[in-house]
Write a structure and sequence with these properties.
260 residues; alpha/beta; 7-stranded parallel sheet; 8 helices
Length: 260
């Protein structure tokens, strides 16, 4: 029997107001975990934290993970209620911009949000995982971290770094019972991709739904994925069912990746 029960485990998910983060919070809680998450606005926090789940619990914090002090406040808030067993580094942004017009500040701000937030949270929660001889860290990277995109240069760089860090930490702390992996979503129907499709539609005179449907034909399974399909993999990796999986980077892309 596959054991996906997370009862008694405390999980942290960063950037969970929408999409993959929100779906991951719900699914971890439904499998028994007590989940702590953050989002930038009080409205987003209240919306998700008010959901009723059958098994675990959900608690939210307002935090800007692109800000060092705000990130530390979120970390302190979660640690004040006990050690963390599961960390899902999900928060991130993916601006599309031209390399020649990007400033140092653009690079620094995205690295603060996408990469350093993951570094700070992992560094904070890892010691207790090692002490308890059990832990799970999942980096929500991206297919752009493995297959660079000219329009997402800084985004891809941060996501590639997350994959590299997860593999390094997996080698270092696997013997302590801490398993660390990366998940690489491809075309997932989230607000981010809806914004991108809207921009294309406005430029071409079409509509967002038709753009998403057309883009989906480039995927072997013929459609965009869902946030829940990504969350399912994350939940599996956080469970005892994945007790011999560490240092991997797993694509959730409907078969788009063409490598061996």
């Amino acid at each position: 029997m596959i054991n996906l029960d997370l009862s008694g485990k405390k999980a942290v998910v960063t950037g969970a107001s929408l999409g993959i983060g929100e779906a991951t919070v719900k699914m971890l809680a439904e499998h028994g975990a007590d989940v702590f998450f953050c989002a930038r606005t009080e409205e987003s926090v209240q919306k998700l934290a008010s959901l009723e789940v059958n098994n675990g619990s959900i608690k939210g914090f307002v935090a800007d993970m692109g800000n060092k002090e705000s990130t530390q406040a979120f970390i302190d808030g979660t640690l004040s209620e006990g050690s963390v067993d599961i960390l899902v580094n999900n928060v991130g942004a993916s601006p599309s911009r031209n390399f020649l017009y990007m400033t140092d500040e653009d690079w620094q701000e995205l690295h603060e949000l996408n990469l350093l937030s993951a570094v700070r949270c992992t560094r904070a929660f890892l010691p207790a995982m090692r002490e308890n001889k059990w832990g799970r860290v999942v980096m929500i990277s991206s297919s752009a971290g493995k297959y660079p995109n000219a329009a997402l240069i800084d985004y891809g760089a941060t996501k590639a770094a997350m994959i590299s860090i997860s593999k390094s930490l997996a080698k270092k702390y696997g013997s302590d019972g801490v398993l660390i992996n990366s998940v690489l979503p491809g075309l997932i129907h989230t607000a981010m991709w809806e914004r991108a499709a809207t921009e294309i539609a406005e430029a071409t005179g079409g509509n967002m739904e038709d753009v998403i449907k057309a883009n989906g034909t480039s995927v072997p399974v013929g459609r965009y994925g869902t946030s829940e399909e990504v969350a399912s993999l994350v939940t599996f990796l956080c469970s005892e069912a994945a007790s011999y999986i560490s240092g991997t980077s797993i694509e959730v892309d409907g078969g788009q990746a063409g490598h061996i």
